[in-house]
Structures are given as C-alpha cells and as structure tokens.
Amino acid sequence: MSEITIEKRNLFFEYLEEEGLSPEKNRSILEVSPSILTSQSFCLVEKYGELYKQFLVSRRFEQESFKGVPVKGMLGQVILEKGNLVVPVPTRDKLRGYYNILKCAPFDILLIQGQIDDAYSLVKARQQLLFGDVCEKHDYVTKKAYYDLVKAIQRYNDYGDYEMHHDRKNNHEYYLIMRKK
User: Fold this and answer.
1) With DSSP H G I counted as helix, E B as strand and the rest as coil, what are the percentages for the chain, rounded to 5?
2) For residue 127, which of 155, 93, 101 has the smallest C-alpha distance?
3) What's the pLDDT score for residue 58?
4) How wide is the angle at C-alpha 25 spanned by C-alphas 23 and 30, nearest 5°?
5) Intervals of the chain under pLDDT 70
6) Tens of pLDDT along 24-59?
7) Bridge partners for 109 per DSSP
C-alpha cells in the first residue's frame, strides 16, 4: 500500500466525482485522513465551499487553513462505539471520554482514501461508506486489499449492499467501494 500524495488525492477526487459524488446528492461527509493537505475534505471545501458539510478527523489535524481553505475537523481517530462513530478524547480526570460526532452533526457518508486498517475498523458503520484509492497499475497488494475489504463489508455491514468499482486510466488503477445504485 502506498502513501497518499496530493497527486493521488486529486486523482481520487476526480474519480469520486465521476462516480457520482456531488453536492446535490451527498451533503454531509465525515472523512478520516492522515492530514488536511491529503484529504478529500480539502478538495471539497476548495471546490464547493459551504455546499458540503464536511468534517475531517485526522491524527495530524491542525486548526489552520491552507491556501485560505478552512477545513473543519479535529485531531483524533474515529472508532465505532455501540454502533456510533466517535472520537476518543482525554478528559480532565484522565478517563477516556468520547466526542460523539453524530450527535453534533449527523453525517450520511463516511469517506476514507487509502488507510485500509481504518476502513476495516469501520466496516459496520451506518453511514454510506466510500472507501477507495488510486495506485499504480499492477499493484496487486492494493488490489487484493480492496477486494478483501469489500467482502468484509458485504459480510458485516447491515446498512446497505456494497460493490467494488474498479477502473484503469493513464497508468493508474482506481478502486472505490460504495453502495449499489
């Protein structure tokens, strides 16, 4: 599995739009990404502004904007707790507290590019899942990882029927797991 770059972020964003991602159909997106600059949230806010309600959870989130693009989000890691998406946060008495993302903003899409481990830990989420990536042609490790992931989603997610979209263009392979239309 390769690292997410700005080039791969942009290619995957174009692919998401080709596959139907639009502000008319998809209004609220929760994304898990390594950083703001490699996130799809950055692309969404840069292109569409306030048309999307987006929220980014990243292990390297910094509350500042890049190129004047104000991405909303927080530092942390999304987990499932009793069927809800939450972000564990430390409390003053050092007990584990939770920031329940869905209580303050109900998101209908969970978006993850790359990061197979995070995707596996969230396969049972209620939201529509958009999991995928762009890789070089003949990257059999990534191909196998996404085909295994879609099987896990089909087996364990009770909130929709999912399928794999796979395309080849310009020396790249595109993988996208999404609900059947």
Assistant:
1) 30, 35, 40
2) 101
3) 87
4) 70
5) 1-2, 62-67, 89-105
6) 887 789 999 998 889 999 999 889 887 778 888 888
7) 29, 128
Pairing state between β 109-113 and 28-32: parallel
Q: The sheet that has 128-136: what strands, in order across it?
A: 73-75, 53-58, 28-32, 109-113, 128-136, 172-179, 162-169
Residue carrying the six token digits 């796979």: 166
Q: Which two tokens stand for residue 39?
A: 């996130």
* Residue 106 tokens, joined: 């109900």
In this structure, what token pair is assigned to residue 179? Answer: 């609900």
* pTM assigned to the model: 0.89
Specify the amino acid at residue 65: S
Q: What pLDDT was estimated at residue 102?
A: 54
CB atoms within 10 A of CB 61: 18
21: Cβ–Cβ under 8 A, 6 or more apart, which residues?
Answer: 130
* Phi-psi label, residue 67: left if phi above 0, alpha if psi -120 to 50, beta otherwise: left
Q: How far apart are CA 38 and CA 7, in angstroms?
A: 9
pLDDT of residue 104: 55
Residue type, 12: F
Q: Is residue 85 classed as helix, strand or coil in its secondary structure?
A: strand
